[in-house]
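Changelog note: in this version the structure field was regenerated for every chain. One regenerated record is shown below for reference.
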Amino acid sequence: MVMVYSIFGSLTVCCRHYTAQNWPRATELFDAALMQEPHNIKGIINQADIFSYHQRDWEKTAKHYEKYIELNPTSGSLVNNLLQVYSRLDKPADQIAY
């Protein structure tokens, strides 16, 4: 298990792995960071990007986009991204809570 002492320090480490395209390690570190601060928007969106663009895990992508939209319901671009993911999952668009 990854020990996370500071959300800001751990996000810096996460971002280093993200930048280095070490997706498994970045995912592990973002998971640990988000356990300490589950409402951190930067962590949520970076984790969603990994699941979407690099791992093609649409269920996990949807979960993170949904969390982001719950925290920031005026984000039209993320709603659009979530609609695209729902299309891949054959989920109806009316399941998005605004």
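Spot check on this record: Residues 1-8 have pLDDT under 50 and may be disordered. DSSP finds five helices and no strands in the chain.
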